[in-house]
């Protein structure tokens, strides 16, 4: 067996185990974790809001672990707009220090990534904004930030 083929088998085994652990543990904040692309390891899932800011909200995200995971971080993005300093307003990609190649550790699991998203939603990393308007609002006037956040939320929850 070629080394590349063996590596892919190991990768798929790890991904399957991590997905099984997520679904077996029935994490209350993660719902509907499912594969959405037949030929790639791309999954979609929902996370439930867990604080007063996100109470009753359900966020839908795509997670792509098909390229060199776990040696490279997965690609993660929201399936809808979110007004947040660390979420690109056009592509909905998440900018998290954990997901940067220079910070990524192969021991990091998919569950670690999902928990990081929840933390990032509640506590934006203002040192790495990709939505500069949201970052300025978050820093200068949280009431304006919340109003804009809620306006965007209305568009995708209706």
UniProtKB/TrEMBL annotation:
Gene Ontology MF annotations: ubiquitin conjugating enzyme activity
SUPFAM superfamilies in the record: UBC-like
Domain UBC core: 10-158
Pfam families in UniProt: UQ_con (PF00179)
GO biological-process terms attached to the record: protein polyubiquitination; ubiquitin-dependent protein catabolic process
PROSITE patterns: UBC_2
GO CC term (a single one): nucleus
Membrane-spanning intervals of the chain: none
UniProt xrefs under PANTHER family: UBIQUITIN-CONJUGATING ENZYME E2
Protein name: Protein CBR-UBC-24
Gene: ubc-24
């Amino acid at each position: 067996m070629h080394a590349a083929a063996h590596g892919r088998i190991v990768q798929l085994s790890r991904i399957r185990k991590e997905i099984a652990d997520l679904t077996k543990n029935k994490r209350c904040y993660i719902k509907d974790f499912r594969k959405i692309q037949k030929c790639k390891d791309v999954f979609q899932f929902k996370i439930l809001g867990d604080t007063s800011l996100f109470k009753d909200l359900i966020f839908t995200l795509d997670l792509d672990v098909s390229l060199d995971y776990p040696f490279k971080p997965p690609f993660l993005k929201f399936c809808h707009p979110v007004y947040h300093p660390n979420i690109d307003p056009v592509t909905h990609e998440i900018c998290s220090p954990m997901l940067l190649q220079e910070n990524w550790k192969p021991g990091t699991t998919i569950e670690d990534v999902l928990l990081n998203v929840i933390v990032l939603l509640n506590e934006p990393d203002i040192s790495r904004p990709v939505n500069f308007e949201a970052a300025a609002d978050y820093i200068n006037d949280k009431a304006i930030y919340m109003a804009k956040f809620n306006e965007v939320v209305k568009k995708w929850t209706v």
